[in-house]
């Protein structure tokens, strides 16, 4: 079965403290069933102080995105800009006189291909 959420998709958080926030998927972790979404689920991370080769100090408190479970996000419909479910359908594409069937992800609410 193909992945319903992929890198680069626009998703909306449907549960949790960041509910209704939208962001782009930066990375997908299929084994852990988690996604990293831009600007969502931000946590403070304390990094140990150190020095680079040039002599500048690094470390301190950083605010970074943390991965969240894939069930807490839904893909945004390109037409309505609202969360929707994802379906798969087979479409025939003709290229150089040869017809070929391709699996395509689509938004269930509008029927548009993702």
Automatic annotation (TrEMBL):
Gene Ontology BP, a term: translation
Organism superkingdom? Bacteria
Checking CDD domains in the record gives: KOW_RPL26
Residues in KOW domain copies: 4-31
UniProt keywords, alphabetically? Ribonucleoprotein, Ribosomal protein, RNA-binding, rRNA-binding
Keyword RNA-binding applies: yes
* SMART domains xrefs: KOW
Q: Name one GO molecular function term.
A: structural constituent of ribosome
The entry sums up its family as follows:
Belongs to the universal ribosomal protein uL24 family.
Q: How does it assemble?
A: Part of the 50S ribosomal subunit.
Function field: One of the proteins that surrounds the polypeptide exit tunnel on the outside of the subunit. One of two assembly initiator proteins, it binds directly to the 5'-end of the 23S rRNA, where it nucleates assembly of the 50S subunit.
Listed name of the protein: Large ribosomal subunit protein uL24
Query: Lineage from the top down?
Result: Bacteria, Bacillati, Actinomycetota, Actinomycetes, Micrococcales
